[in-house]
């Protein structure tokens, strides 16, 4: 009898522990609205996939919205998140300006806003923090590599495939690149035009550069992202130019496809932009909801890749 009572007590305790664990877990589940810019590039798609996968692994109820490259869609998504009473909002902003009003609405509703990737000009009191890479630094890295690669050339004329106009990614990369090439008298930016971060945009812009300038006078192309650069590679090949040999290339993102281009000898270098920012973003949200104070910026580090390790890196990524 005594042992039956003991067994019962043990069972009751086990169920109580299990029950409270389930309860804690249920209380723990948060709902987060994520407003993405769109799916303009390979990097953007990888970033979206990483955000969704990380939310799943952390049992976060993620409401995803694809803004299709329109700020008005992103603002509508934020308003819908507010109406649904989410625990937090993550915004990957298309452009820098025009967010103050909707951020104020979120704040009035008591919903914290977290910025991811590109920056905004809104008053910092309207959002909690920003999780992002340093785009100025990425531009500097690209220019510094080009300076080294052309150290023995008297003159190197560079063309730039500019990202989305009004996006901090494009503004900052152009700034970092320009201020660094200014330190090297042989480097000169001769043309810059937006390809909107897309492959077709990059191809069209490169075609127009090859038509308006003497192709033989172009020494290098700087792509604000890999997709535009891959489009430019197509344009160069169609014009009978050997990319990465006749015209040096450097771009940003380090998507899988640029490694294939480097392996084929069509691209020289890329700067890494990590798409795996979900870990830091969700940790920031949890800390904030637990009452902690966060820094204004949560930085994501960069790196560079070149032809010599492209095959190795590609194999490591694709498991081949
Ligand atoms: O480089 C590009 C994407 O905002 C920094 O956006 C990001 C950029 C990225 O479309 O591929």
How would you characterize this protein structure?
This protein is an alpha/beta fold. The strands form two sheets. It has a six-stranded parallel beta sheet, with helices on both faces. Strand 1, helix 2 and strand 2 form a beta-alpha-beta unit. About 2% of the residues have low confidence. The chain binds beta-D-fucofuranose (GYE). Beta-D-fucofuranose (GYE) binds next to helix 2 and strand 9. The site of beta-D-fucofuranose has 12 residues, from helix 2 and strand 9.
Please sum up the structure shown.
It is built from eleven helices and twelve strands.
Q: What's the CATH architecture of the largest domain?
A: 3-Layer(aba) Sandwich
Just give the CATH class of the largest domain: Alpha Beta
* H-E order: HEHEHEHEEHEHEHEHEHEHEEH
Q: Strand tally, please?
A: 12
User: How many domains would you count in the coordinates?
Assistant: 2
